[in-house]
Amino acid sequence: MASKGFEPVDPVGIDDLLSDDEKAVRASVRKLCDEIAPDVPRWFEDGRLDDPRGLAKRFGELGLLGMHLEGYGCAGMSSVDYGLACTELEALDSGVRSMVSVQGSLAMYAIWRFGSEEQKQEWLPRMATGDAIGCFGLTEPDHGSDPAGMTTRARRDGDDWVLDGRKMWITNGSVAEVAVVWAQTDDGIRGFVVPTDTDGFSAPEIRHKMSLRASVTSELVLDGVRLPGSAVLPDVTGLRGPLSCLNEARFGIVWGAMGAARSSFETALRYAGERTQFGKPIAAYQLTQQKLADMAVELAKGQLLALHLGRRKDAGTLRPEQVSLGKLNNVREALEICRTARTILGANGISLEYPVLRHANNLESVLTYEGTVEMHTLVLGQALTGEAAFR
């Protein structure tokens, strides 16, 4: 078979490793993102989404919500398909990708994996279509990397549960119909399916963000929220529940970060060919070519790592430590690609007319959510040495 020409945006030929069906999934998500793209800079500048519920329904119509889950109206697609979708969504904006991944990999996954049949039937079909939005309440104002120290409490009162506490930095919180909330109980940490119209529940939106501005971020306030006994997730106790959900979301980040990096690299490559200084395009100068080459190398490495981990996940052989490695590397390198792309654009790089600084700002959040650099470093350190150094 004749070799294809060199592709600047795919220098090592990763597309040859994808099936036609996988490429079709990517193309369909990219098409939807292209339709949404003109609105994103304004959403970022305004610090709000115009119509988050309408956006969720558009994603639901394409089958993106919980797309890697089986049954209950979910698409049942592969992990690689989901990863490719995350790449396209984050090439649009990290905040938009966060809406989808929190819905599918955190809220829906928790119910799908640990919920009762009644809970699954009640929520998953509506969440898959975007008719119900979900959020995931784990992080607290004083407990981020150490969720075992959470102070949100659920106590028994007859046949009911009563929840009190606060959760912080919760994507989708103010627009959600259902929240999966993790709380301390006498039997350990348990998860609860909380309809957001329950008395005592509120979700004030967090304003004045400098990152993930095209996203709804909220605090969850639980003041004497009374739930029936059936609200608890029956099939898990302890941190295994929330941490397994986080691992699902981290997998999507491994892919998504490469979308932000690709968007910034493509922008810088195109700009370097068009911007003329001293009588020729800046792409003709050695220092610019070094930047472009370095970005291309790291982008290709990150994309190959994401695909490899996706194949392992589909084969059932992916380990949590490998997801930590992918998240640590790909977000860190994506952020560096975006920052380098900004330097190629010069002053234009700080303008919302171009996506690169928006991506860089967003990745500052992605770098620390779903596990900070320090936490993933220590996960890898423990796997490498057998010694836990978290305390």
UniProtKB/TrEMBL annotation:
<dbReference type="InterPro" id="IPR006091">
    <property type="entry name" value="Acyl-CoA_Oxase/DH_mid-dom"/>
</dbReference>
<keyword id="KW-0274">FAD</keyword>
<dbReference type="InterPro" id="IPR046373">
    <property type="entry name" value="Acyl-CoA_Oxase/DH_mid-dom_sf"/>
</dbReference>
<comment type="similarity">
    <text>Belongs to the acyl-CoA dehydrogenase family.</text>
</comment>
<dbReference type="Pfam" id="PF00441">
    <property type="entry name" value="Acyl-CoA_dh_1"/>
</dbReference>
<dbReference type="InterPro" id="IPR013786">
    <property type="entry name" value="AcylCoA_DH/ox_N"/>
</dbReference>
<dbReference type="InterPro" id="IPR052033">
    <property type="entry name" value="Glutaryl-CoA_DH_mitochondrial"/>
</dbReference>
<dbReference type="InterPro" id="IPR009100">
    <property type="entry name" value="AcylCoA_DH/oxidase_NM_dom_sf"/>
</dbReference>
<feature type="domain" description="Acyl-CoA oxidase/dehydrogenase middle">
    <location>
        <begin position="135"/>
        <end position="225"/>
    </location>
</feature>
<dbReference type="InterPro" id="IPR037069">
    <property type="entry name" value="AcylCoA_DH/ox_N_sf"/>
</dbReference>
<dbReference type="InterPro" id="IPR036250">
    <property type="entry name" value="AcylCo_DH-like_C"/>
</dbReference>
<protein>
    <submittedName>
        <fullName>Acyl-CoA dehydrogenase family protein</fullName>
    </submittedName>
</protein>
<dbReference type="InterPro" id="IPR009075">
    <property type="entry name" value="AcylCo_DH/oxidase_C"/>
</dbReference>
<keyword id="KW-0285">Flavoprotein</keyword>
<dbReference type="Pfam" id="PF02771">
    <property type="entry name" value="Acyl-CoA_dh_N"/>
</dbReference>
<feature type="domain" description="Acyl-CoA dehydrogenase/oxidase C-terminal">
    <location>
        <begin position="238"/>
        <end position="384"/>
    </location>
</feature>
<keyword id="KW-0560">Oxidoreductase</keyword>
<feature type="domain" description="Acyl-CoA dehydrogenase/oxidase N-terminal">
    <location>
        <begin position="19"/>
        <end position="131"/>
    </location>
</feature>
<dbReference type="Pfam" id="PF02770">
    <property type="entry name" value="Acyl-CoA_dh_M"/>
</dbReference>
<keyword id="KW-0809">Transit peptide</keyword>
